Amino acid sequence: SSWHNQGAVHLDRAPKFIQTLLADMDEVDKRPNPSEQPQILWQKSLEPARAEYRRCHSTDGLWSDLKDVHAERAIRHIYDPVAGWIEVEALVKIDMDNVFAAGAMRNCFRLKMFPRHTSAIHIGDWSYAENFLGKMYIKQEIDNRAAVLEDVTMQMDCKQWADKFNLKASEKHTSARLDMIRISAIELVDRPDKPMLCCERFIEGEYKKYNSNSGFIEQSPDHKVRNTPQAFSHFTYESSGGQLIVVDVQGVGDLYTDPQIHSADLTKYSGDANLGLRGIAYFFASHKCNAICHALGLRPLATCDTDASRNGIDGEEGLTQTMPSIMERVPSSIPSFMERVPSNGRHLRLQKYHGQTNEPSRIPVAVVPKGRVTDHEAMQVRIVESEIPAEPLPEGAVHLEFAKMHLEGCFHEEPDTFAALFHLRLAAQVGHRGALWIVAQLYKGIECADFPGVKVEEDHARSTKLAKVAADHGVPGALFSLARSAATLVERKVYYERAIALGGGDSAWGDGLYQLQHELAEILQAGGEGLEADPASAAELWLEAAEGAMGEGKMKLWQKYNTLAEEAQACVE
């Protein structure tokens, strides 16, 4: 019934006896009277179904010699993302003396086990047992038990993402469907040290890796890429709000296993293969949105040709990912990768190519690159302060990671400051707090230690605008700077109050809470420039500053602030 109801599923993945049953069900549906003697059709299906069942459960072939292996008790640890862990007893046969297959991290062993709901009368009759694989880590320094439980948790979480993908695909009326193999942990309780293995059903068919955890994308000899696996990875990123992505997608057809999750929170999936934001950036460096991505309404993440070149992707191919459509009345001189759209807080302005025209610029302010752009186009990107969203978008952290990777030579042997600046600007444009302040400093002529060699032409007016946006986003450095440099005392008072509300910063840089309280108290005591003097508030701030100074052992400052507080109180009296 499950297979029959999912009409859009790739039925070539179904067991042959299931395909036979479905074909006969369709034949019933096509009869003038579907209820007319349907038992005849079902009886005809029974024999091939039985034959297929016997083949799947037989001891012939690769699992044939397990009939001579001693059966042993095991505890099966089953994980459900909602219900958590449960334990059930199991009877297994496993050949631990011969490695069936070996990977870089784990060895695979053949295993037979009875399904959870096997009838009691069949326990012990190994013709009813199913073929499984048991996987154990090779390296001794790895805590095998913890790693196995982590793998089970991760894959079952991925299965939940697969269910969400199928639901979304159904809502969008696209035929893409996939599934993730259920796995569990098997603990061999009668053996010394009670070894634990990852356990999953053995799936016959051609096994393929569609993408990796470091940006690899599988291509056919004619350079075609399968859509469903790549769209699934993209879907998990967007549906999680940019908190994670499922990669290392591999399996038989669209039945996947052994995935990897890169998460922004590295503590959630703590294995070494979780590359965090860097892993997410690696995926998008290679990813080209396909028909399924578009059908699901997934947003392309802007990249440039330099990002894709690490994995041998042709820059010309990357151009097909951009959205060339432009609204009417936009000048023909605008590059094809620019699209005019209603203002939604995620837009970029691109400078006009030099020498194209001497006419006044009519390029619209609100434009945004879609998908991959050429390196030349990437150099034209500029930030529009008024279009920066009030709430940061999750892709900002990915763009910032891209910028770091370009400076570390992750895409080329030499650092690429131009590609780094492209992503740094994109991060700022979508509201990333750190990127906003870094770019503001660059326009002021101050190079960032974390982004060596990245420079822009100095523009103090733009620096101030970006600093104000950064301050509005609660960036401490921007608040400290504007509190001391804003044009009016009224503005400075506002920024000081917000900086103090955040708890101040590093006292070694003069941004400690007690230092900020002292500076604001001086402003309130003196007043002027449209700001009314407020000695009472100044006195309170100095008393609070005195307590803070004493807490850090600054006794001279403690005495100074107390004296200033007394003088302010005298003015009130």
Structure description:
By secondary structure, this protein is an alpha+beta fold. It is built from 19 helices and 17 strands. Strand 1 (72-80) and strand 2 (84-94) form a beta hairpin. The model is unreliable at 1-36 and 314-367 (pLDDT under 50).
What would you call the structural class?
alpha+beta
Show unreliable segments: 1-36, 314-367
Whole-number radius of gyration?
32 Å
Mean pLDDT: 82
Query: How would you sum up the major sheet?
Result: 6 strands, antiparallel, barrel
Question: With helices defined by DSSP (H or I, 4 residues minimum), what is the helix count?
Answer: 19
Q: Kindly, what is the distance between the CA atoms of the first and last residues, rounded to a whole number of angstroms? A: 86 Å
**What is the number of strand segments?**
17
Strand order of the largest sheet: 1-2-4-5-8-7
Please tell me what the overall shape is: elongated
Indicate the percent of residues in helices.
40-55%
Residues in β-strands, percent: 5-15%
